[in-house]
Amino acid sequence: MTKTIARYFAAFNAGDTAEMLDCLSDNVAHHVNEGEIRLGKERFAEFCSHMSRCYKEELTGIVLFDTEDGSRAAAEFIVNGTYLETDEGLPEAKGQTYRLPGGSFFELQDGKITRVTTYYNLADWMAQVSGKSAQA
Questions:
Q1: Which letter does DSSP use for residue 111 in this model?
Q2: Model pTM?
Q3: Which of 11, 16, 28, 32 could form a disulfide with 24 if both were Cys (CB 3.0 to 4.6 A apart)?
């Protein structure tokens, strides 16, 4: 199943939301970092549209893991981004760049992703776009 996950991340890096959606089941559960669970492809597409407007990101150093039965997978990566447009409730966007580690966890069924859970350190991101140190 790492083939499906690799295809998902290649589409992410290409900014190809349609290809990302093709990797998902119709009833996908999208668990975002510091946010609500979004159910279904339509809500996932809305999230991607919002993210593309506010952020330009590329994932590098992607390492994929999966279970023997192919029902679950994980990925570790580095997020390399630019903050393009101010996101509600977050610091003002001024084209700041950021780099931080992240990870995603997946459930799969019949070759499609049924759950995506993504984590990164929001405090680290906030510090980077605010020009402050993440360590107190």
A1: T
A2: 0.91
A3: 28
